Amino acid sequence: KSFCACLTETESANHVITANEGGAIGLAAGHYLATGKLACVYMQNSGQGNAVNPLLSLADPDVYSIPMLLLVGWRGEPGVHDEPQHVKQGKVTVSLFEALGIPTEVLPDDVYAAQEVAARMVKKAVEENRPVALVVRKGVFAEYKLKTIRENIVETPREEAIERIVREYGNEAVFVSTTGMISRELYETRIRLGQDHSRDFLTVGSMGHASMIAMGIAKAKPEQLVICLDGDGASLMQMGNMAIVGQSGCENLLHIVLNNAAHDSVGGQPTVADAVRLSDIAQSCGYSVATFIPGVRTQAYGRPMFMEILVAKGARKDLGRPKEPPQENKDLFMRTLAK
Question: pTM here?
Answer without folding.
Answer: 0.88
